C-alpha cells in the first residue's frame, strides 16, 4: 500500500510517500533515500496525526565534530534528523557532526581553556530530550525497536559503524532542567531492559551521526509513538549502565604465542580478553594504583581493537571517559585534550602494528598505496620496477627478544614487566 504525502509548508527533508508492506513501513524521499518507520499505519486517515509526531520541531545543538569548538542550535524534527543521518557523508568518523538534544551556555569550558570546548556538563542550560548508546549489551536493533514500539515512545534509532551498536534519541514534550535528565535516562534504560551504556548518563554526552564513506549506510528507524520520554511513567527506571559479565577464566599461560617475551607478557596481563571494559573504565582514576588513566587506556584500547572496533571509535570512547575522570577528580586543567587525542591515536596505531591482522577493522578508510613509481635511472626502467610487491615489515616478526640471564634478576624482572606496560620492544 502506498500513500502520497502532500507537501507540508516549512517542513524540510519531508518524505513524499508513505509505504506499508507486511508488518513494516517506510518513508520514501524524492532523492530516493528510504527511512524505516513504525508502527505500521493501516488506517491512512491516521497518517496525518502520525506525521505530526514525526515532524514536530525539537531543539537540538549540532557540533561540527567531537571537539565542539563551535555549535549551532536548530529546531529539527526527528524526520529531519533521520534524513541527515542517511545523507551526511564524511571521509572519516572524526569529521562527522554530533547531535545533542540540549542547549548550552555558549561559554568555553572554564575548567579546561586549552580545549576550547563548548560541550561540557556544567554548560548545559536545558534539555529537550535524551540520547542513549547501546554498545555491548545483548540487544539487537530490531529487539530495541519492538520495545520502543511497545512503550509507545517517540524515538529515532540509528546504527553506528560498529556491528550491533546503535543510538536511541528520545525528545521530551517540553524544555526541562538538566537535573531532570538522569531520571529520564533511567526510564529509557528501563524500557530497553538496562541495555544502554554508562556513558549515556553523562549530562553533556552527544553522539555523531552520518555515514563514513566506504562503509555501509547506517540503518535508521523512526518509532512514531504517541508520547515523549517525559510522559512515560509506567516503566521502572534503571540508573546503572550495562556492564558486560566475564564469561572466561582468568587462568592464563605465560608462555604466549610468540618468541618475544614482552609481547607475551603484555597479551597475558594487559591485552588479552576477557576484560570487563565497562568496569575497567568505571574504576579508572587519576593517578590510580593499578587503575590509573594510562594503564586503563592501554588495556581498554587493545581489547576494543581486538574485538573489531575502529581506532576512531576507541579514541572517542577513551577520550570521553578520560574527560569524565578529569572533571570528576578536578584535574581537567591538567590535560591538553588535543595532545591526549594524539596520544590515544598513537597508542592504537602501536597496537595495530603489533597485530597487523587488525588493520582492516581498525582503519577501514585507509588503503595501501597501489603503485609507487621509483625514480627513473639509466639502470632500470619504470616498467622493470612496476611488478615489485610492497613488503609489510611488521608481518615478518618483532625482532630478537632480550635474552634472559644477562641482568640481575630484580632488574631483569622489572625490565620485562615495564617493557610490556609501556609497549616497549627491546630490539
Give the gist of this structure.
Among the domains are: 51-231, Alpha-Beta Plaits, CATH 3.30.70; 275-362.
Note down, in words, how this protein is organized:
- The chain is an alpha+beta fold and 427 residues long.
- Among the domains are: 51-231, Alpha-Beta Plaits (2-Layer Sandwich); 275-362.
- The chain is built from twelve helices and 15 strands.
- It has helices at 47-54, 78-87, 141-150, 181-191, 261-271, 277-283, 293-306, 311-328, 337-354, 359-362, 382-385, 409-421, and strands at residues 2-4, 17-21, 24-28, 34-38, 58-63, 72-76, 89-90, 98-100, 102-104, 124-134, 154-159, 166-176, 207-208, 211-212, 220-224.
- The strands form three sheets. Strands 1-2-3-4-15-11-12-10-9 form a nine-stranded mixed sheet, with helices on both faces. Strands 6-5-8-13 form a four-stranded antiparallel sheet.
- Helix 8 (311-328) packs across helix 9 (337-354).
- The termini are far apart.
- The model is unreliable at 246-265, 267-273 and 367-382 (pLDDT under 50).
> How does the overall form come out from the CA principal axes?
globular
CATH architecture field of the domain at 51-231: 2-Layer Sandwich
**What portion of residues is helical?**
25-40%
User: What is the averaged pLDDT score?
Assistant: 77
- Tell me the strand percentage band: 15-25%
User: What's the main sheet like?
Assistant: 9 strands, mixed
Strand order of the largest sheet: 1-2-3-4-15-11-12-10-9
CATH superfamily descriptor of the domain at 51-231 = RepB DNA-primase, N-terminal domain
List the secondary-structure elements in sequence, H or E: EEEEHEEHEEEEHEEHEEEHHHHHHHH
Could you tell me how far the N terminus lies from the C terminus, measured between alpha carbons in angstroms?
A: 68 Å
Total number of strands: 15
Rg, alpha carbons = 25 Å
SS field, number of helical segments: 12
Uncertain ranges: 246-265, 267-273, 367-382
Amino acid at each position: 500500500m502506498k500513500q502520497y504525502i502532500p507537501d507540508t509548508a516549512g517542513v524540510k527533508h519531508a518524505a513524499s510517500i508513505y509505504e506499508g508492506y507486511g508488518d513494516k513501513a517506510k518513508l520514501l524521499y524524492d532523492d530516493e533515500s528510504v527511512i524505516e518507520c513504525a508502527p505500521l499505519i493501516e488506517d491512512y486517515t491516521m497518517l496525518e496525526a502520525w506525521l505530526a509526531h514525526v515532524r514536530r520541531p525539537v531543539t537540538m545543538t549540532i557540533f561540527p565534530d567531537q571537539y565542539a569548538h563551535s555549535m549551532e542550535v536548530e529546531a529539527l524534527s526527528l524526520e529531519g534528523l533521520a534524513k541527515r543521518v542517511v545523507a551526511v557523508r564524511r571521509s572519516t568518523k572524526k569529521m562527522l557532526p554530533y547531535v545533542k538534544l540540549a542547549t548550552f551556555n555558549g561559554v568555553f569550558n572554564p575548567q579546561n581553556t586549552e580545549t576550547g570546548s563548548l560541550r561540557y556538563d556544567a554548560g548545559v542550560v536545558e534539555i529537550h530530550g535524551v540520547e542513549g548508546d547501546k554498545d555491548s549489551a545483548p540487544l539487537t536493533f530490531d529487539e530495541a525497536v519492538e520495545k520502543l514500539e511497545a512503550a509507545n515512545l517517540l524515538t529515532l534509532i540509528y546504527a553506528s559503524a560498529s556491528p550491533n551498536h546503535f543510538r536511541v534519541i528520545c525528545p521530551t514534550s517540553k524544555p526541562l532542567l538538566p537535573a531532570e535528565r538522569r531520571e529520564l535516562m533511567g526510564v529509557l534504560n528501563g524500557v530497553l531492559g538496562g541495555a544502554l551504556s554508562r556513558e549515556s548518563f553523562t549530562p553533556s554526552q552527544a553522539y555523531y551521526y552520518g555515514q563514513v564513506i566506504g562503509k555501509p549506510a547506517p540503518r535508521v528507524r523512526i518509532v512514531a509513538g504517541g508520547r515523549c520520554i517525559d510522559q512515560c511513567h509506567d516503566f521502572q527506571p534503571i540508573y546503572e549502565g550495562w556492564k558486560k559479565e566475564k564469561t572466561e577464566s582468568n587462568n592464563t599461560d605465560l608462555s604466549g604465542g610468540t618468541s618475544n617475551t614482552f609481547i607475551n607478557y603484555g597479551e597475558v596481563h594487559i591485552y588479552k580478553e576477557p576484560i570487563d571494559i565497562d568496569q575497567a573504565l568505571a574504576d579508572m582514576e587519576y593517578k590510580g594504583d593499578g587503575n590509573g588513566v594510562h594503564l586503563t587506556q592501554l588495556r581498554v584500547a587493545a581489547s576494543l581493537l581486538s574485538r573489531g572496533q575502529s581506532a576512531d571509535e576507541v579514541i572517542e570512547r577513551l577520550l570521553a571517559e578520560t574527560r569524565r575522570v578529569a572533571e570528576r577528580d578536578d584535574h581537567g586543567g591538567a590535560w591538553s585534550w588535543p595532545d591526549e587525542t594524539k596520544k590515544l591515536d598513537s597508542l592504537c596505531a602501536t597496537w595495530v602494528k603489533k597485530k597487523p591482522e587488525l588493520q582492516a577493522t581498525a582503519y577501514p578508510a585507509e588503503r595501501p598505496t597501489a603503485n609507487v613509481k621509483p625514480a627513473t635511472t639509466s639502470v632500470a626502467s619504470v616498467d622493470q620496477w612496476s611488478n615489485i610487491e610492497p613488503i609489510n615489515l611488521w608481518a615478518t616478526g618483532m625482532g630478537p627478544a632480550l635474552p634472559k640471564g644477562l641482568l640481575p634478576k630484580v632488574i631483569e624482572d622489572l625490565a620485562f614487566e615495564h617493557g610490556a606496560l609501556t609497549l616497549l620492544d627491546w630490539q
